[in-house]
Inverse folding.
């Protein structure tokens, strides 16, 4: 795993047991009748809820109330839990003391929030390998072609940023939601800063699998979603430098964002709003998703308490088992940008000759009780590029944009039986073509 900021805990440390997920005993119907234990291999879309997360939400519900402006005990307690969640998230990503933590709905919301806060004239540089959440929000963007190897990504960013005048922002994923491959974000952050640019890292697919230290990697902004992080309660976060956020107009205009509102019909004057100078309050107008923030913090606490060594070791074992199994099946082609040896998290995408991606996914569900994702994974340009590279367009045409792939993704709760069941099922499907 490149870079110490991605490493697990120190060797020799005894980690607590890995927490359980809700739904691990779910049984689903299969063709021909009967029920089988569900093999959930769709973590990259939405991970199941950790038991400690569910417990934290249940504990907060009896005293749930509004935050920040209530004098009652329940309001004070809820406010304390909400702000403690902010501190927990800040610590989880190793943020700097002055960094803002703005709670959002998800990674997409976080990227759009930052897009609204860019200084006038900012040019965004983004690779076409990005999830749409990172590819689409920017009013002015320079899009870079998929790099053939990590060093080419660094060189392309270097050359592009050097040619841009004025404020600039480099946007990049930490781990691909299509292939799971890890990106050289430390090197890209260094290049960005050398040219006076800032960097936003989409960490949605990284933080459920690896420790991230914003300070050690020298990142300006990080965004991620609770529903990828075993906290499916509708919360995410944008963490990073406060100045752009504090100087921008509020993301939403309303209660909480406003410090004072003067004028009005009674005075015969137009309304004049003074916005909060605190960037966190400034961009969290309205009643926030308190339970989502509590859940997100509980997931951060649970993963931190478990330690990363055991999580990474089990994930790498299962990913190796899956990829070796796929490689042994004639007609199954794994998608990869930088080759089979490049480090990755628990995400594997592939195509099966003679089958559309939707046919594969539906058959896996109906006959084997396996849940996977099919399509283009909200990364249409990248998936088309990868399908072109393997010469596969079984699910339509790359030219008209209808081709797709199958994605299997793993996490806490995935078992060896799940992986072996998928490999056996795909071997059966490939033999039917």
């Amino acid at each position: 795993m490149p870079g110490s900021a991605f490493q697990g805990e120190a060797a020799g440390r005894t980690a607590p047991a890995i927490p359980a997920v809700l739904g691990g005993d779910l049984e689903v119907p299969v063709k021909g009748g009967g029920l089988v234990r569900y093999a959930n291999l769709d973590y990259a879309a939405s991970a199941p809820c950790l038991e400690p997360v569910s417990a934290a939400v249940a504990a907060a519900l009896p005293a749930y109330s509004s935050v920040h402006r209530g004098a009652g005990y329940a309001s004070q307690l809820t406010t304390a839990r909400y702000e403690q969640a902010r501190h927990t998230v800040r610590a989880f990503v190793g943020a700097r003391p002055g960094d803002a933590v703005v709670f959002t709905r998800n990674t997409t919301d976080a990227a759009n929030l930052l897009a609204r806060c860019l200084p006038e004239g900012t040019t965004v540089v983004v690779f076409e390998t990005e999830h749409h959440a990172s590819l689409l929000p920017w009013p002015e963007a320079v899009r870079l072609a998929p790099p053939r190897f990590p060093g080419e990504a660094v060189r392309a960013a270097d050359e592009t940023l050097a040619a841009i005048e004025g404020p600039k922002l480099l946007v990049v994923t930490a781990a691909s939601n299509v292939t799971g491959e890890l990106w050289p974000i430390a090197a890209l952050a260094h290049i960005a800063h050398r040219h006076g640019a800032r960097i936003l890292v989409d960490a949605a697919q990284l933080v459920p699998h690896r420790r991230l230290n914003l300070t050690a990697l020298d990142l300006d902004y990080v965004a991620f979603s609770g529903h990828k992080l075993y906290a499916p309660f509708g919360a995410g976060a944008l963490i990073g430098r406060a100045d752009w956020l504090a100087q921008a107009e509020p993301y939403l205009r309303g209660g909480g964002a406003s410090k004072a509102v003067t004028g009005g019909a009674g005075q015969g004057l137009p309304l004049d709003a003074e916005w909060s100078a605190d960037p966190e309050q400034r961009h969290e107008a309205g009643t926030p998703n308190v339970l989502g923030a509590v859940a997100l913090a509980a997931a951060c606490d649970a993963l931190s308490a478990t330690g990363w060594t055991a999580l990474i070791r089990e994930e790498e074992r299962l990913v190796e088992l899956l990829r070796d199994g796929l490689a042994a099946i004639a007609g199954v082609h794994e998608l990869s940008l930088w080759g089979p040896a490049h480090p990755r998290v628990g995400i594997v995408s592939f195509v099966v000759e003679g089958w559309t991606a939707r046919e594969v996914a539906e058959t896996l569900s109906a006959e084997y009780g396996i849940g996977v994702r099919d399509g283009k994974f909200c990364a249409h340009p990248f998936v088309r590029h990868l399908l072109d590279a393997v010469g596969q367009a079984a699910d339509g045409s790359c030219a008209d944009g209808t081709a797709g792939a199958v994605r299997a993704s793993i996490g806490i709760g995935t078992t060896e039986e799940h992986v072996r069941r998928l490999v056996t099922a795909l071997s059966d499907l490939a033999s039917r073509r």
